[in-house]
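Troubleshooting log. The previous structure file for this entry was overwritten by mistake, so regenerating from the original sequence record. Sequence copied from the archived sheet and checked twice against the printout by T.R.
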Amino acid sequence: MAVVIPFESGPQASIESLVALAAPDMERVNATILSRTGSQVTMIPEVANHLINSGGKRLRPMLTLAMADLTGYSGEGHVKLAAAVEFMHTATLLHDDVVDESDMRRGKLAARKVWGNEASVLVGDFLLGQAFRMMVEVGNLRALEILSNAAAVIAEGEVMQLAAAKNTATTEDDYLAVIRGKTAELFAAACEVGPVLAGRAKDDLAACRSFGMNLGIAFQLVDDALDYGGKAAKLGKNVGDDFREGKITLPVVLSFRRGNAEERSFWTAALEKGEATQADLEHAIALMTRHRALEDTIKRAQHYGAMAKDALALFPASKVKQALEEAVDFCIARAY
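Regenerated output below.
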């Protein structure tokens, strides 16, 4: 059994307000997603819908819709862009599970375990293609530029993480660069494209992008802590997967830096040599507890969450602004 770290009681938060405000448009997004996963190649909808229908909160497309609402957009393009964002996210999950050799995703067998690595990669490619089709159909060159750039940055972030895997020399700055690319960039793009459609000024666009970027960093940092201090049922994957895969995340970086020579030798053996056992995982969590690595990772997440909220200060008070602020609290509260 993995050791579960009980974080101190945190704020009660939910995304119910965001879900309620986005609900009418999310129905259209979901219908678009369903229609765009259709193919005469039977395996494509089977693989795609295995993950799409597996219970994800679809936070990223909801952010696209909410930001369009916040900035006064009244057209139809935000629906296709929100669907494109979800397809991009789903494609990265399909690809990531192959790269990481993951067995579980959102509490179910990963698609690669059901259909194989080849099908997972190729269906991910199909979803990316459909995402770009929808971007082109919207007809906004700047929105297309933002999302296509995000696709490239996400891939760069994944390669950076691959290069950093098992490398205990990775610094905190190095790791933050990884998660800005692989996770936060899509949050940022999702939050920027709606205001672009609305024709908002550069300052507003920068604020919306900053909100998404900082929220994305906070979201990933909480995930990093949960991999060592969460529960499998809540994670939708096995506790300690990052450790077993040799991933260098912030709790590892902090523990390694703060540890003595013997502890650093443990991290090197467990991560770099790929010899991690269940006992190693429990020892790793004990070291993280000793050096307050999990607690400090959550504190950093709270810091980025506060910056996300600050980015919304340009906008007047409204229900959608409040819902976005509550979404930040929800992302942080997952740690508790």
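The CA atoms of residues 50 and 111 lie 7 Å apart. Archived copy saved in two places this time.
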